[in-house]
Amino acid sequence: MLVVPFLAGALPVGFDGWHAVLLPAWLLAYCAAFHAQQFVRLRRLSRNPRAPRRHLAPLTGFGAAFAVCAVPLAVAHPWLLIAALCAAPFFALNIGYAYRNKERATVNGIAAVVPACGMLLVSYRLGSGTVDSGAWQAAAACLLYFTGTVLYVKTMIRERGSEAFRVASAVYHGLAVVAAVSLDPWLAVPFVLFFVRAMALPARRVRVAVVGAVEVLCSVLLLAFLVCGGLLPG
To answer: Rounded to an integer, what distance in angstroms lies between the CA atom of residue 190 and that of residue 99?
Structure first.
């Protein structure tokens, strides 16, 4: 979720030096956000005052490392500050869910997906200087896939056996096929496969490691179709 949209935006326009700074900045921001959420959650819920404090050191470290990467990026490309402001409401929503100890909520998962898919637009503009309709469509394809992943993974782990979640995931993936085809007919291939896995695998007992491995393969497949398809130049 963190790397695929970034690469889908960067590879077609040429991975350059600023991309090499943006990628670690993005990953460090995610790590800092994770520890911020854990600090907020444990400060409210834990009776042990040491529990939330354990997240302060990594939060500070990741935050400082992020700043080292982010400051030169912002100086060279001030529009990145607008991109950060666009992501801020989703981060705030994640913090709110952490505060209520509901990090695994479906809405919270989707809220994390949106800025991650938006990174495709950021890395694309960083290399091309603009954002065209193809980049928006590619970002939409990422959003379709990773939103579906939130639902699908729940049917395999936390909501295993839930008929409501299984049906919701199946319906969503069916609609996602139609939406993906409207973006690019070639996307029918990966999205039909995503639909098949959402229909077939929840009925089977699959180990968590296998679930994760399948999602890695699906992500790589999506990346290949986005980079080699007709949406983005390259």
So the answer is: 37
Mind listing the pLDDT tens digit for each residue in 79-135?
999 999 999 999 999 999 999 999 999 999 999 999 999 999 999 999 999 999 999
pLDDT at residue 234, rounded to an integer: 56
Which residue has tokens 């954002």?
Answer: 131
Q: Are residues 160 and 231 in the same domain?
A: yes
Q: How far apart are CA 176 and CA 183, in angstroms?
A: 11
With beta carbons less than 8 A apart as the criterion, state whether 9 and 123 touch.
Answer: yes
Return the beta strands (E) in 41-138 as ranges. Answer: none
Token pair of 190, please?
Answer: 């990966």
Which backbone phi and psi does 226 adopt, to 5 degrees?
-70, -40
* Same-domain status, 97 and 145: no
Domain hosting residue 225, numbered range: 132-234
167 and 122 in a single domain? The answer is no
DSSP character at residue 232: S
Q: Do 91 and 167 share a domain, yes or no? A: no
Q: Which residues contact 188 (CB under 8 A, 6 or more apart)?
A: 177, 180, 181
